[in-house]
Amino acid sequence: MVQVEGRVALIGHPVGHSLSPVMHNRAFERLGLAWRYSAFDVQPKDLPDAMRGLRALGFRGWNITVPHKEAACRLVDELSDEAAEIGAVNTVLVQEGRLTGYNTDGWGYVEALHAETGLTVEGKVSVVVGAGGAARGIAHALVREGALVRVVARRPAQAERLADEFSRLGPGRIQAGGWDKLQVWLREADLCVNTTPVGMSPDTGAMPFDPGWTREGCVVSDIVYNPRETLLLKRARELGRSTCDGVGMFVFQGAAAFRIWTGLAAPVADMRAVVEEGLDDGAVKGGSDI
Predict the structure, then answer these.
(1) Catalytic residue positions, numbered
(2) Which end of the chain has a smaller Cβ tally under 10 Å, C or N?
(3) 19 a known binding residue?
(4) Any known ligand binding at 81?
């Protein structure tokens, strides 16, 4: 039976820029559901209290964004198999007072990549720039899809820890390196994805790396969705590279969370339309909340 009334939310720091409430509330309205999505700015030290509070207030669930995705793993009662493997949570479901953590980032990214570029990653060299919560979900999904994944981070130990944890998914399927590896690995990549906030509004003049380091035929991807075309993607497009922006991932990961909470297929087209309207109208004053 469909639950026709419910409350869900986003918790992170900061969240004032987020289009998640607009996107989900449009979806609820489209399906005639009396649900409401809110956003709460929660400092890291307050995360345990915030999650206890939302459960006590009867929320059906919530999304988790930066910087809480990894910490949330330790605050739920159980994890989905995928979230346990990834080590990060971006969606929580409350059932009979128990919290279950899920991760929809990787699925959302791969769905968007397929929809927007047609790229099949099996057997392809994929460079993931960054090693935070979103990177973990994306790297996990790419390895699962059969890609050869190389993770690069300014803190090599963080990338190495991620690669070590995911090595059980397939011997030789994932490698890690520091920034000194980036230019060499990009020359061999079929896909590169920026999972860092570099280039996100308001710092739109920055790039995480030079897309000129990529080879012809490489797909350049950025999970930042504000601006829709980051400077990285603009420069890559000018070089003739195929590009994939962060809007698709944002919408698809949200659609997966919507199904987890409601049991219903999300109206993806409506969700994407309202996100694009918000970006085109300049409604987002800060960055993305992937």
Answers:
(1) 69
(2) N
(3) yes
(4) yes
